[in-house]
Every structure is written in C-alpha cells, then in structure tokens.
Amino acid sequence: MAGGGAKARGPFEAIGRVLPQTYLLLVLLAIIVVGYFVTPNFLTVRNFGNVIAFSSIIAILAVGQFYVILTGGIDLSVGAILAFSTVVVALNLRTGMDAGLATIITLSACAGVGLLNALLVVWVRIPPFIATLAMMSAIQGFSYIIQSSSLIEIDNQTFVIWFSDGRLFGLANPVLIFVVVTAVAAFTSRFTSFGRRLYAIGGNREAARLSGLPVARDLIVTYTLSGALAGLAGLLAAAQLLQGSSLVGRGNELDAIAAVVVGGASLAGGNGNPVNSVIGVFVLATIINIMNLVGISSEPQLVIKGAVIIIAVFLSSAGGVGRISATVSGLLGGSARQKLDAAS
Questions:
Q1: Which helix or strand (DSSP H or E) is residue 295 part of?
Q2: Whole-number Å distance between alpha carbons of 332 and 344
Q3: Is 43 helix (H, G, I), strand (E, B) or coil?
C-alpha cells in the first residue's frame, strides 16, 4: 500500500511544484477570460494592439528596473529619464541630425544619467531610494529647461518607422524591440556570470563582497543599464507621440516597479526573473485596459491597481503561492490518503 500512497501523492506533489512557476500565466489567462465576458470590445485585434503598444514601453522600463531590484536597489528616475529621452531625441532630430546618430546620442545621454545614479549609490553611498528620487527631480527640471516650455514635434519618418510604424517578420517594431530586450535579459540573468553575480549581490551584498565579487562594478553597470533602457523606452514613446515632452513618463517608474513586484521579484533583492516582470506588465496593462473599456473612472482604477499589487506581493515576496500550494497539496493529498486507507 505504501507504493500506492506514493503514486496517489505524486500528482498533488507535482501541482505543488508547478503552481509557483506558472501562477502568473494562470492569473493573466483568468484576467483575459474575465475581459472577454465583461466587454465585447476586449478580444479585438485593435484593442490588443493598443495594449501591446502601451505595454512595450513599460516592459522595457520593467526589464531595467528588474536588474536594479535584483540587487536590492530601486530606480525612481526611469520615468524622468524616459521624458528626457523624448526631449533629447526630438531636439536632435529638429536640427536635421541623422536618425541613427540622434538615437546613439540619446541613449548615451540616458546611460550617463544612469551612471550618475550609480556613482551616487556606490561611491557617495546614498541609499538608492534617495539618490534616484533626487535624480528624478533633477532630470525632470532639466528636461523642462532644455525643452523651452513648448512641445517639440518629430517629423523624421526614418525615426518613426524604426521605433513605431515599421514592421519586421510580421511584428511591429516596438513589439520586436521589447521581445529582444526581454530575451537578452532572460539569457543574461540565467546563463552569464554577470547575472549570477547580481543574484548573489541581492541575496547578501556583504557576503558577495567578501567572496571577491566586483560588487561596485556590477552595481555601476546595473544602474547604467537601467538608464539606457529607460532611454530606449523614451525613443518608443517619442516615435508614438511624434513629439518630445518633459511631461511624459510621469508615474511610469511606479508602473515598472509594480510590474516587477507583480512578476514575483522581491524588493529585498536576490530573486525573480525578467520574463515574469514583463508578464507582470501585461497583467497590469490588461486590467487597466478592461477597466477603461468598462468605463471605470481613474480614481477607482487606482484603488483596484493598488489591491492587485498588494495581492501580488503576498503571492510572491510573502510566499503566498508556496503556502497556497502546500495547503492545496496537503488537503488533496490527505483526501487521497484517506480514500486509500478506507479501501485497504
């Protein structure tokens, strides 16, 4: 009978192992099903195109934010860097600069802002929350100054095709860009020594330092990368809006942080993966899209969004999925054992 009990417990133990790895996709699927039933306009090509277009920008921000959170830090400046990116590229394009050169200069400038964040955190030793909060304010003000109080229109068609209207392999370029960014991030975080070091730094920074890992260098690379990716997200936003503006991107840093948390990463650092962070973007974006289609006003949307984030933190950082899996497995396993005992 012992062998029969083991066989009976096998499926439930498998559920307990698989559920923590797949719950986010199940949540996204459940949200899509709800959207299908509550509004007829949800499952349309046009609507999904709108969701993906919005999500592509936040997804790139979330990948950069994931790297920072993985080390136990946080980057509140990415929304401001996004706006800075739109202004810089628009100013460059207005002078008649080649789209490729304007893109390189913009990404370099945004990476430079990320580098400043890194120096404040690593060398000046200001806590990441304070350092990036100060940088957010400084970059917002600087973007407004160089914009000269007026929107800067973008009419360079090459740039617009690259980052908005173009298609490659049947995919819109913004989608292709965020897919490539996510794939590279997933590979880097799992299969490279740099990715493994970031997990070690987030798990225990002092132990990583004492082990001889280049903690300072890796943190500098991480914040610089976050700034560059925020700049890339800004290029997508500029191409979609056809303008540079210091007002765009406000609140996007919170959306990116929320997506990473919904994706299962801990704000304490040391766990998570970029793919789940991107899925977290789609979870939040799909919920917001459904609420917009239903006609829910912005204030209740904020309440619902906050509740989703709290539940996500419970399921991920607070170990809620593991506890639920263990409870379900225990209950179902116990029921199966009772039936086996009764049969014997």
A1: none
A2: 19
A3: coil
Cβ atoms 109, 54 nearer than 8 A = no
Q: 189-242, pLDDT tens digit by residue?
A: 999 999 999 999 999 999 999 999 999 999 999 999 999 999 999 999 999 999
- What would the pLDDT profile of 119-158 be if each residue is shown by its tens digit? 999 999 999 999 999 999 999 999 999 998 678 999 999 9
61 within 8 A of 183, measured Cβ to Cβ: no
Task: Say which amino acid occupies 114.
Answer: G
| Contact (CB, 8 A) for 243 and 86 | yes
Domain containing 135 equals 21-320
**Residue 82 maps to a domain:** yes
The DSSP line for 127-148 is -HHHHHHHHHHHHHHHHHHHHT
Q: Is residue 265's pLDDT more than 60?
A: yes
Is residue 112 in some structural domain?
Answer: yes
**DSSP code for 212:** T
DSSP 148: T
Q: Two tokens at 85?
A: 């990116």
Distance CA 244, CA 160 (A): 13
pTM for the whole structure: 0.86
Burial of 254 (0-12, 13-18, 19+ CB in 10 A): middle
The span from the CA of 313 to the CA of 146, in Å, is 39
Q: What is the CATH number of the domain that holds 310?
A: 1.10.3470
| Owner of token pair 């999500």 | 55
Number of domains in the chain: 1
In this structure, is residue 1 part of a structural domain?
A: no
Residue 340, in any domain of the structure: no
How many CB atoms are located within 10 Å of the residue 134 CB?
A: 15
Burial of 248 per CB tally in 10 Å (0-12, 13-18, 19+): buried
